[in-house]
Amino acid sequence: MELCQKLGINPSRNNHDNISAITEKLKGSERLIIIDEAELLSYKCLEIIRRIHDMTGVGVVLAGMPRLRRNLRGKSGEYKQLYSRIGFACDIKDKLPDSDLDLLIKTAFGTDEFTQQLRTASHGNARRLNKLLRGVNRLAKLNNKPVSQKMIETISGMLID
Questions:
Q1: Is the pLDDT reported for residue 66 higher than 90?
Q2: By the 8 A CB rule, do 4 and 11 touch?
Q3: pLDDT tens per residue across span 81-120
Q4: Please, which pLDDT band fits residue 22 given cuts at 50, 70 and 90?
Q5: Residue 79 has pLDDT above 80, yes or no
Q6: Distance separating alpha carbons of residues 64 and 39, to the nearest angstrom
Q7: Cβ–Cβ under 8 Å, residues 118 and 152
Q8: Do residues 131 and 100 touch, judged by C-beta distance below 8 A?
Q9: What distance in Å separates the CA atoms of residue 153 and residue 161, rounded to the nearest whole number?
């Protein structure tokens, strides 16, 4: 349902109709489906994502906790058709490489002016960086001012983790 909404499709109560509409929209689009907290998806949902991938060729990133890999295999390895589709698994731990952080920061702000400060304030953690970027953008909009180093310091000091 959420994927339908993100693609501007009116969701149906029928999964077959939803999958058909999604595949029509995604075929040849070269888009990427990114699913966070994928360890919470049921086997049925994972199979639907697999079918969409097979039918459209779009890339799929399943991000989640270590339990995700176990869910993809099945308790007794019974999900081979699903697990065999995985290109690679990447354990990013708590810290992203600087090049990844730089790309996220440049994408969010359109400049690399604050890259070093945000890299330092995020401690290399993607979730913390996301909170920083959202908070700084929100603060800038509320004050109708451009992003500044002071705003980054303010938001960084307010974050819990």
A1: no
A2: yes
A3: 888 888 888 877 778 889 989 998 998 888 899 999 999 9
A4: very high
A5: yes
A6: 5
A7: yes
A8: no
A9: 14
- Region 58-84: mean pLDDT is 88
HEC per residue, the chain: CHHHHHCCCCCCCCHHHHHHHHHHHHCCCCCEEEECCHHHCCHHHHHHHHHHHHHHCCEEEECCCCHHHHHHHCCCCCCHHHHCCCCCCCCCCCCCCHHHHHHHHHHHHCCCCCHHHHHHHHCCCHHHHHHHHHHHHHHHHHHCCCCCHHHHHHHHHHCCC
**Quick one: tokens of 154?**
């303010």
Q: Which of 68, 101, 106, 108 is nearest to 86 (CA)?
A: 68
Q: Cβ neighbours of residue 49 under 8 Å, at least 6 residues apart?
A: 33, 35, 41, 60, 62
Return the structure tokens found at 47: 């199979």
In tens, the pLDDT along 28-50 reads 998 999 999 999 999 999 999 99
Question: Which amino acid would we find at residue 59?
Answer: G
Query: Which tokens belong to 64?
Result: 């989640």
| DSSP letter (8 states) at residue 124 | T
